[in-house]
Amino acid sequence: MNSMTAEDVRRVIQNEGIEVVRVVFNDVANVARARNIPADTFVQDVLEGGVQYPSAMFSVDTGGNFVLNAGAGFAGGYGSWLLKVDPATFTVLPWAPKTARIIADVYTLDGEPVPVYPRGVLRHVLAELERDGYSTLGAAELEFYVFRELNPSGYTATWTGLQCYSEVKQAEVDELLWDMVVPMKAIGIQVEAANTEYGPGQFEVSMKPFRGLAQADAAFYYKTSIKELMRKRGLLATFMAKPLTGLSGSGAHFHHSLYDIASGKNAFYDPADERGMSETFKHFIAGQLAHSAAICAFANPSVNSYRRMRPYTFAPFNVTWGFENRMCLIRVPHSRGQGTHLENRMPGADHNPYLMMAAMYAAGLDGIRKRTPLPEPVVGEDAYAVAGAPQLPVRLEDALSALQQDEVLRGYLGGGVIDAFVALKMNEITRFHNQVTAWEIQEYAELF
Prior knowledge:
With 448 residues, the protein is an alpha+beta fold. It has 13 helices and 17 strands. Strands 1, 2, 3, 4, 5 and 6 form a 6-stranded mixed β-sheet that branches. Strand 5 and strand 6 (99-107) form a beta hairpin. Helix 8 (292-299) runs antiparallel to helix 9 (353-370). The chain is globular, with a radius of gyration of 22 Å.
């Protein structure tokens, strides 16, 4: 997110009086991990040499349960891996006294990239695009809820009603909107807009796009930062896709485009085309449509994700695309020229940005390389009712099955990360089905 070098990092640590550096990363289970390192140790040893991390932690699911087939298992011994920091991601945290944060990449002790590390997976896909002459630019819109309480009786919303964009309602939570915008500038994230959304206690934030890895780094940093800032106020920020029954889900629509490295021009724009769309753009969209069922596993990675994926909810339900159509899986906004881009509306707010973006860029690149034909857009009809349009997965199990069968994504992302991801998620599904829910008690206890 910046151009800092190791020497720049040393200088900032000294000038700002930094005492602790958090070495952070996002793992396969989509959990933000960190090691807090004293600043002097960080400068002397970690900045250039790295710090060890137990590989066993890459085999735990969202509940902290060890899933043996998500890694080498006990036979592998669960040796250490190495966290090597990326100076370009270093930032001082204005809300944490004398504390900085930096993202690490994960390597074996022999210096080889760990194939199941999500940021490394995205880096590999971006390198494939660069081989074909493309750079990337993108940003995920983030929707999330902020609650005053999280307890067995439910949530207390920070604001009430369904007044999306209401100035009156936003004035009630102005201090929260401030936290969502102003402190982010200090960590290199420029928020373009923040507002209330269509759910009690729900917010939406859109940010300025970034190039390359930084577009995922920004989403990762933003989500963890908002949770921390809200917790300091005694509040809970959640990026669950569907925290409230019958009310709006939280998405993370991904706006992105490709640029020709040689010319710097937007590779999606063609002024000679009647719709302003280059052949590259058409094939890119077609690739994402073709692999959408498999992408869905990374874009919607939890059991809860699929409670959001319902028709007539502004979330996608089938595989369609259209111009300025928010019912479709892929929306092509009106902007052309250097601003030509697509919005993929599939991701839930609970996605891992590195894996989601890697899957979408890989699918788009596959469409370009294979010159996959683009079907006709949805025009003048109900996108949810388009005859013959394939339906997106309605359960996490279905999405995982599609991912396992997609040899193209396996080739781009690597079989290791897909196998580990599926193993972790299948364990999560099993644990979910082993629980007796409050709904079951209410529905059946007296009746049967």
